[in-house]
Design brief:
Layout lengths: L8 E5 L2 E5 L5 H5 L7 H18 L7 H4 L2 H4 L1 E4 L4 E6 L3 E8 L13 E2 L5 E6 L9 E8 L2 E5 L7 E3 L6 E4 L21 E7 L12 H15 L3 E5 L2 E2 L12 E5 L6 H13 L3 E6 L4 E2 L24 E2 L4 E2 L6 H18 L3 E4 L2 H5 L22 H17 L4 E4 L21 E3 L2 H12 L7 H8 L8 E4 L13 H6 L2 H4 L8 H19 L4 E5 L28 H5 L5 H16 L10 E6 L4 E6 L2 E6 L6 E9 L2 E7 L16 E3 L11 E8 L3 E7 L1
Parallel strand pairs: 12-13, 12-24, 13-16, 16-20, 20-21, 21-22, 22-23, 23-24
Antiparallel strand pairs: 1-2, 3-4, 4-7, 5-8, 6-7, 8-9, 8-11, 10-11, 14-15, 17-19, 18-19, 25-26, 26-27, 27-32, 28-31, 29-30, 29-32
Helix pairs in contact: 2-9, 5-6, 7-9, 14-16
Length: 690
């Protein structure tokens, strides 16, 4: 157990032992500008240490042992019979009703309060219920009652006709048997394919776990990604919420199939070297009362903050009370459940900014360090996130945790021992914002390599990031993907080979360059959203009243990338080649990003990583012959060229030739010579040293 106290060393001064402590906590030692806020950083760390000690009885237990609520609460099959438990301190009576009781209250299915607790328990005979039965709770409290789905339910289904959700008894005769029992994620580097099960097929319908396993996973493997990040796993009443308004936190969404089918998908991914992380939503919960936790037993604040902190003002949802031990127990158990029961390799935590600040980050600029330590931060939420990271890595030291955080809170992806939150990575949310702003507001002649280079490597040196050009956020109605911002309606009319216009040529060229410079500068990992690698032409619009409940835009048209008469496959082929180049350098993400040259007037950028040299010419009109760069002496071969005809380019350069550096006596002592290249306009090339 980490105590938070630095190890002391003893020296003798005038015969008296003196304890020497490090001058600064690690976070401050790594960044001197944080020194004025060291007390706050230490205070957060000490708060987490205190809470860990409290929950583990000063280390007698473990966080993993504490986070086992799903084994106790909910419905469980015993060696003889069944047991059901629920935490509902405000309830006065609880009945289980369902198929087994003709949906009527009976004494046989009336739970009893466990004396001295807020817990309720019901023991059921062996034949009292069976696999597949639907059920709910009838909960009574002073002044009211209601029909509810148990908070810890592990299986929830929706009736296709009535659209009503119910919990379901789930005890299949043959439990899933894992084929791949041990798995270690490959993070060198982490290459994430962000995906959504339901919209992962051509057909205008909701896709399934099995369809994804059989049809989409092979594409991801072939493309070269080594991790999938799955959205919308936790059960959510409204499909169009993209999975972010969760009602049943322990239930994998049944609209995609059974729990066993989800396990089979994860198992198959692991067998192919693909890690699987889940987009977990602990930042808020759906307001629904019948399906969700909004008013489980007559106390709206059972799981959520009271007063003006109860509701999220922008998301129409409820905010968890991270100061309650029972809520921490619920959420930490949720993390453990998905890892233990489904073998998820980690999580991307949604909406971390919203959790960190009383304001949820709304209307705040975060211009200086003081904005992160001004008393507007939710210490309870900070403590919870720190504990979640401790727990996840206690369960699996190789687990992956990623924070979706936009404010830039220092220490988010720093080690716990250094005063950090303990995330492995943070999302580099500045990068997609930068690309959108650049494409919207600047002419091609105004694109400055110095600005681009600064942005793609703008991060704290002690924190790893997941770089990306666009995620699902940029693909939703109301926003636009990069390809659509570049080409717009011409995608529908001029994306057939031989029929491309100048707008299409420009869009294809910049789409590749934007991805290459972003991926080429990573210090942790790279993320792509499903379909964006080949320039999927349409935004995502889930079935809703406004579109006639259509699935037309809630799918991925794989037929487009498979059709070699269209230009989409150029982008898909380039993405695959780009990842292959990045993976060719061992621990690419850890190699220094060394600038070789930039010239904003020429719009040329060059940088080096290991034995790879990345060269970009962002100029829309000017090509350069014999453009020189000082690089380590030797010979270089082209391993990737955005202008190759294989990727929809012009093929102006001869990529088969070996480039040999030119001698210059001035730089002999530096072991450098001139590498002279032909760089066509709006193109990029990657060379590898022989």
């Amino acid at each position: 157990m980490v105590t938070g106290k630095p190890k002391s060393t003893r020296t003798k001064t005038e015969g008296k032992p003196v304890s020497k402590q490090p001058e600064h906590i690690g976070l401050v030692a790594n960044d001197g500008y944080l020194a004025p806020y060291e007390d706050a950083i230490r205070g957060r760390h000490d708060h987490a240490v205190w809470k860990i000690n409290q929950l583990t009885h000063n280390g007698k237990d473990t966080l993993e042992g504490f986070a086992s609520g799903y084994d106790y609460y909910g419905l469980h099959k015993l060696s003889r019979g069944w047991v059901f438990r629920e935490w509902a301190p405000n309830a006065t009576a609880i009945y289980l009703v369902g198929d087994f009781s003709n949906w009527e209250e009976t004494e046989k299915f009336k739970a009893k309060r466990i004396e001295g607790t807020g817990n309720w328990e019901l023991k059921i005979s062996e034949k009292g219920i069976k696999h597949g039965d639907l059920y709910k709770m009838h909960v009574y409290w002073d002044g009211g009652h209601g029909e509810r789905i148990p908070a810890w339910a592990q299986r929830v289904v929706q009736d296709e006709k009535t659209k009503i959700f119910s919990a379901q008894v789930w005890n299949p005769e043959k439990p899933y048997v894992w084929k791949k029992k041990k798995f270690k994620p490959n993070k060198n580097p982490l290459l994430i394919y962000e995906c959504h099960i339901g919209m992962a097929q051509d057909a205008e319908k909701v896709g399934t776990y099995t369809e994804f396993k059989d049809n989409v996973l092979p594409r991801i493997i072939d493309d070269g990604y080594n991790c999938i990040q799955i959205m919308a796993i936790q059960e959510h009443p409204y499909y169009g919420s993209f999975g972010y308004h969760v009602s049943s936190f322990f239930a994998p969404s049944s609209r995609f199939g059974t729990p066993e089918e989800l396990k089979a998908l994860i198992d198959e991914a692991h067998r192919n070297g693909i890690s699987v992380i889940m987009d977990i939503v602990h930042s808020h919960a759906v307001k629904n009362e019948v399906e969700g936790l909004g008013n489980l037993a007559g106390d709206p604040n059972q799981y959520f903050y009271p007063g003006d902190r109860h509701e999220h003002p922008a998301w129409d949802s409820l905010c968890f009370d991270y100061g309650k031990d029972d809520v921490i127990h619920f959420l930490l158990s949720n993390c453990k459940y998905w890892m233990k029961e489904f073998h998820f390799d980690g999580f991307r935590f949604d909406g971390v900014t919203s959790m960190l600040y009383y304001s949820h980050g709304l209307g705040e600029a975060f211009c200086n360090y003081g904005d992160y330590f001004n008393g507007h931060e939710d210490d309870n939420a900070i403590c919870y996130l720190t504990l979640a990271n401790k727990l996840i890595h206690e369960i699996n030291p190789d687990a992956i945790t990623i924070a979706e955080e936009v404010s830039g809170m220092p220490g988010l992806a720093a080690k716990f021992e250094d005063g950090g939150f303990g995330f492995d990575y943070r999302m580099a949310m500045n990068i997609p914002d930068y690309w959108i702003k650049t494409i919207k507001e600047k002419s091609d002649e105004e694109w400055k390599p110095s600005s681009i280079f600064w942005e793609v490597k703008n991060r704290r040196p002690d924190e790893k990031t997941i770089s990306y050009c666009e995620s699902h956020d940029q693909a939703l109605v109301g926003d636009k993907t990069i390809i659509f911002r570049l080409i717009d309606a011409d995608m529908y009319w001029h994306f057939k080979k031989g029929d491309e216009n100048e707008t299409v040529h420009r869009g294809i060229a910049l789409h590749k360059m934007i991805r290459l410079v972003t991926a080429g500068a990573i210090n942790g990992g790279y993320l792509n959203f499903m379909g964006n690698e080949f320039g999927h032409p349409e935004w995502i619009d889930f079935p809703r009243e406004g579109n006639g409940w259509s699935y037309k835009y809630a799918r991925r048209q794989w037929n487009l990338v498979d059709n070699h008469e269209l230009c989409y496959h150029y982008l898909g082929d380039f993405d695959k080649a780009m990842l292959r180049v990045i993976k060719s350098v061992r621990n690419f993400q850890n190699t220094p990003v060394q600038e070789i040259w930039h010239n904003d007037g020429d719009q040329v950028l060059a940088f080096m990583r290991g034995d790879l040299i990345f060269v970009f010419n962002f100029s829309p009109t000017r090509s350069f012959t014999d453009y020189g760069f000082l690089v380590p002496t030797g010979s270089y071969d082209v391993v990737l060229n955005t202008d190759s005809k294989d990727f929809g380019g012009n093929g102006f350069a001869d990529d088969s030739m070996t480039h040999v550096t030119n001698y210059d006596p001035l730089y002999v002592k530096d072991h450098k010579e001139w590498l002279k290249l032909y760089i066509p306009a709006r193109s990029a090339v990657v060379l590898k040293k022989n």
